[in-house]
């Protein structure tokens, strides 16, 4: 199997987890990488699924900004309103959350309802 095939299977597994958690009645948000620039560690289309208890699976940055994304996802779960997050070396937030690896990443976070994203 190639690295690309493994990455695709891992992302499908994260989407399956999101659906399973939502069907089980858990409140869930899905974070998706929608734009990268420079040395962003995860490609466009990478996912992180988060439940209302802060449990998560997947990755949107290889650990650089997951904590900040989980925190924002909890707000999305509470409000039901999606949000766009941006982290990068030109953004002072990036240094606070640890995106010192360089580049820029935009992550769309949306609530998930049973049967798909809201």
Automatic annotation (TrEMBL):
Name under which the protein is recorded: Xanthine dehydrogenase accessory factor, putative subfamily
Superkingdom: Bacteria
Residues annotated as domain XdhC- CoxI: 21-88
Native source organism of the sequence: Polymorphum gilvum (strain LMG 25793 / CGMCC 1.9160 / SL003B-26A1)
Pfam name, any one: XdhC_CoxI
InterPro entries registered for this protein in UniProt: MoCofactor_Util/Proc (IPR052698), XdhC_CoxI (IPR003777)
């Amino acid at each position: 199997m190639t690295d690309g095939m493994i990455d695709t299977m891992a992302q499908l597994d994260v989407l399956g987890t999101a659906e399973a958690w939502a069907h089980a009645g858990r409140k869930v948000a899905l974070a998706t990488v929608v734009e990268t620039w420079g040395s962003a560690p995860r490609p466009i289309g990478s996912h992180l699924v988060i439940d209302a208890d802060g449990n998560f699976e997947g990755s949107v940055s290889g650990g650089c900004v997951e904590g900040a994304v989980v925190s924002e996802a909890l707000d999305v779960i509470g409000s039901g309103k999606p949000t766009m997050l941006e982290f990068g070396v030109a953004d002072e937030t990036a240094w606070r959350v640890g995106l010192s690896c360089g580049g820029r990443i935009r992550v769309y976070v949306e609530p998930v309802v049973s049967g798909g994203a809201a």
